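Structure tokens please, single chain.
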Amino acid sequence: MQTKTITTERELEQLCESLASESAIAFDTEFVSEHSFRPELCLIQVAASGRLAAIDTIAVGDTSAFWKMLTSGDHETIVHAGREEVCFCLDAVGAPPKRLFDVQLAAGLIGIEYPAGYGSLMWRVLGKTLHKRETRTDWRKRPLSAQQIDYALDDVRDLELLRNRLYERLDKLGRLAWLQTETDAWLDELRASRQRERWRRVSGSGNLSSRELAILRELWRWREEQAERRNWPVKRVLRDDLLVELAKRKSADEKQIRAVRGMERGDLQRSLPHLIAAIRRGIELPDDECPQFVRRESNSQLNMVAQFLASALNSICRSAEVAPSIVGTSQDVRDFVAYRLGESDTDELPGLARGWRAEVVGNLLNDLLSGQMSIRIRDPHSEEPLVFEPAG
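Here you go.
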């Protein structure tokens, strides 16, 4: 393959002009995420029509021409586990790449493990082994060696070929529409997650009261704003355990806040007026506006049925050549059982009862719950020991 390293805006513009007429563009990125609020993009690897390009984003600076090109025209964009790649595109131009084909999603829909790493897919689908010689590279450092660039390009070198093999299998199984459905849902969830406040994911917050959660939420919002402004990792601004401790104390008293072990840092001392204001907002919030403490009620009978059907789901999925983890989790099975037994806390149809998931597993699980189907063990030593057959 012809290989080129792009280091100037002019070279990037020329590359984008040549890619504009392509029918398929495969790309990947190298980035560093542990030192900043947002991942630092360091390299973009591109493959199309037998050509390879490594875009040195640090040298180029403005890469908006590339992202605009990806969102224009009528090409297919091929990625593997492309969450960060799509996020870079959304941040740059506000839209996702055109006609996304994620090989990780596609693999799950033909029965390969999900989520599967790129090296695993290359071996299982193409029989090729990828070398992991640069897994600890700091991609921010320059200059990049020829070996580092070659290693990075391995992630796109055969990406279109991998896509073609997966496409053939999807087409044979009649599942191309499934992939489109999953891609659309994945993009919708990605957009929503970028707007969602994740304060409930603060470690140690699971047993906080509603009032404590209100304080935690205000502190979390302050931390997010500070991290984005300084371009720091959020936990460098204020650790989760300190957020929770301040929320538990429910006090805006400066002396009590200063007394918390871990609050001695100079920048935190200077931020005390803002922390106090955030805590006060949580304390003064009306009761009916405080976040509700969420605890799922435990129903031992429902849980037992759900655990049994979760095992059945795995067997059904293997027979149907679809990865169980892309179909649903144990909680999805529990939600399905609760809905069918009239014990759900929502009227929304559960995921396993919608679309292709209902076709593959939902209808059969429903027949098992209603007694129309039964399960027996045919051969405990076989790969598929369970047999589903009409009851009676």
